[in-house]
Amino acid sequence: MSGTVIIGGGIAGQAVAERLREAGYDKPVAMLCAESRPPYDRVKLASLLEPGGDPEALQLRPDTWYEDHAVDLHLGVEVTDIDRAARAVVTAAGERITYDTLVVATGSTALVPPIPGIDRDDVLVFRTPEDCEAMVAAAAGTTRACVLGGGLLGLEAARGLVALGVQTTVVHLMGHLMERQLDPFGGSLLTGKMQELSVEVLVDRNTHEVLSADGRVSGLLFTDGSTLDCDLLVVCAGIRPNTALARAAGLECERGVLVDDNLRTSDPHVFSVGECAQHRGVVYGLVAPIFEQAKVAARTIAGDDAAGYEGTVPSAALKVMGVDLVTAGDPMADGGVSVADPETGVYRRLIVSEGRAVGAILMGDTRGAESLVAMVTRGAEVDDPLAALAAAAEAKASDLPDDAQVCACNGVSKGDILTAIREKGLRAPSEVRACTRAGTGCGQCKPLIAEIVAAEVGEATDEATYLCPCRNLTREQVAAVIKERGLRSAGEVAEACGAGRDCGACKPGVAYLVSLIAANRHREEPHSRFINDRVHANIQKDGTFSVVPRIYGGVTTPDELRRIADVAERYEVPMVKITGGQRIDLLGVKKEHLPAMWQELGMPCGHAYAKAIRTVKTCVGAEFCRFGIDNSIDLGIALEKAWEGLYTPHKVKGAVSGCPRNCAEALVKDIGVVAVEGGWEILVGGAAGSTVRRGDLLARVDTAEDVVKVSSTFLQYYREHAEYLERTYDFVERVGLDTIKAAVLDESTGEPAALRERLALARAAARDPWEAAAAGARTEFHDLGEDPEPALVGPPADGSMTSFEDDDKEIA
């Protein structure tokens, strides 16, 4: 193909491809990835050990990015040889791909120390999403786990295992944790924090042997003769540059592939970037140097030989075991000053040698990190270290030099942000994040980004303005494109206006907007939804799922209970629980069992964790309760059936209380209804989560029919006007209750009737996802090879419709 071939689909390979196109390089670019998934963010790998962790969320760019930027992405392609004489690479399948320029970005592999017994199949490493999947599976049958290695990866693995409910011990060879980033005092403080989180720490321990019993790991034997029992071992002892391919091709290598200041190897047509490259004797294992190297390599390949890489002063902004940590330079150097509060875990140190800043450690209190890192990077002169440390804590965005690194995760400086703001007319922090990727890693730099934007352009634009910040597209603009062109899928929207093509973060919002405007007559694309919406169940921290059959108003029948019990027994469901919303939750279901369970239950289940109508909770009402004023059960069932199957900007919960005693907690629901003497009160925008908000009184009506009518009108108004992921309580406060009342209650305008009609059309077209799957809709559970066309969502086969009009006429 000629042009540039990139071997490696990690952060480095992706960065080179992006920088090539930014540099105006117009020749073909191909990226050869040995893994079967597109480039992903390995920095966030630990998120896959948390509840709801989704590998697809780590993907650096959506599939459409490669098409838009003419990058030929090859997945699952292993390069076995580099024919430098012919300028070609050879794949495991025997394919030869020619190049003008080659970039070796093969990264690193997990370092597994040569300890007897460590080569067992049940000893795990922590390097890929597949490793995370194996850890989650192993944790389910584990009593005690051990993590070998007390660096960043080891601590992330330990935190994930503790979150999975496993007693965990970290074993470290060195005298304190994270010795590359922390001095002994900082390491001791971090050890204390870990112990508070129930993680045991053993330092100065040299592992002599991995013990086993009954065919599995049973513990560790140390060189001092002591032992540690465990039945799961995860090795996080560091990384090793992956130089095998480069060495076999005759490129000069030491610890890494040797490169010059333009990132060229010993072959002028071959470059190397990232964890496999060695520059001026240093191999970098952090993200920030990768972006600097990629920028220089790309400029050189594009013809700018003046670009040069002079090395990177190591710095990192991390969150370790929930503790904010920033380090720069040499943490072990002598000199400087420190301020510490062991009780709160705060430690701030500026290291000064021969009058110049050479290192910094900030733990627990990272104020002024950017200023201090810039000082260390420049080797700035420091006359009074204590004053400099104090001044940094008070530094504002305007005080930072342009070369100050704002985002360590993506290597973005203040100057990069200012250039983007000025050249592209950015006015909101969300636009800056989308354009520069600053703040899209760990997120610690988001407040500083907002401060920089405000200082440059004045008061920043509201963050909620753009549905797609990458393309500066508002919700209204995307909606206009959908309506004008009659689009019926998120993919069609992406083709038409680009929403979702650059970073993919807005895809769920676009998918919702399509379904709203098309009144559920749209093409459902599972990859555009969140994981819970794709599988119609809630992923749990151990990788299993929770299934909640819909029980209208909390009222069930012996037949439904029998079906639930039979399914729970047949699929060995670990826990059956009554939820706070009067439903039965089947917890611990394996993903592969979901489709069969749905079929056997014969009950809708996908509402329980989607961005959709959840449940309508009820009390027993007037029929049984001596305090009851009206029939809350029948009204709750009517509301739930009227709204069932509708996607919403965020989850919507309802409740109906049969009297002001509020047993159903209607006062703190998104839509709550309370029976009062002579009628019903309808409240909206309530909340009962981390913050509690009493719902605002929307209306007082006389009959249950009026409740359904008014509540449904409000629901559709919320569906049409709320920002995606905006809860009703935020929506009500932002829009204002008076505005909502005018739109929902003033029948003279015709808008309330129009809202109800649009909701009725959407409700009529809504289908149970299990029925849609049986009809051939594309689901998460099809084999990848099948890949059927997404099924068009539409009205039920029996032609039934729903209306909220007074005369009960059908809406065609």
Give a description of the structure:
The structure is a single chain. The chain is an alpha/beta fold and 812 residues long. It has 24 helices and 40 strands. The model is unreliable at 782-791 and 795-812 (pLDDT under 50).
**Gyration radius, rounded:** 29 Å
Mean pLDDT across every amino acid position:
88
> What is the rounded distance between the termini?
56 Å
Say what oligomer this is: single chain
Number of DSSP helical runs? 24
How would you describe this structure in keywords?
alpha/beta, five-stranded parallel β-sheet, 812 residues, globular
Topology:
Layout: E1 4-7, H1 11-22, E2 29-33, H2 63-68, E3 71-75, E4 79-83, E5 88-91, E6 96-98, E7 101-104, E8 108-110, E9 123-125, H3 129-139, E10 144-148, H4 152-163, E11 167-171, H5 184-196, E12 199-202, E13 207-213, E14 216-222, E15 227-229, E16 232-235, E17 239-241, H6 244-248, E18 257-259, E19 270-272, E20 277-279, H7 287-301, E21 315-320, E22 323-329, E23 337-341, E24 346-353, E25 356-363, H8 369-378, H9 385-393, E26 405-407, E27 412-413, H10 414-424, H11 429-436, H12 446-457, E28 466-468, E29 473-474, H13 475-485, H14 490-497, H15 507-517, H16 531-535, E30 538-539, E31 545-547, H17 558-570, E32 575-578, E33 584-589, H18 594-601, E34 613-618, H19 632-643, E35 652-657, E36 671-676, E37 679-684, E38 687-688, E39 692-693, E40 696-701, H20 704-721, H21 728-735, H22 737-745, H23 751-765, H24 769-774
Parallel strand pairs: 1-2, 1-7, 2-3, 7-19, 9-16, 10-11, 10-16, 11-12, 18-20, 34-35, 35-36
Antiparallel strand pairs: 4-5, 5-6, 8-17, 13-14, 14-15, 21-22, 22-25, 23-24, 24-25, 26-27, 28-29, 30-31, 31-33, 32-33, 36-37, 37-40, 38-39
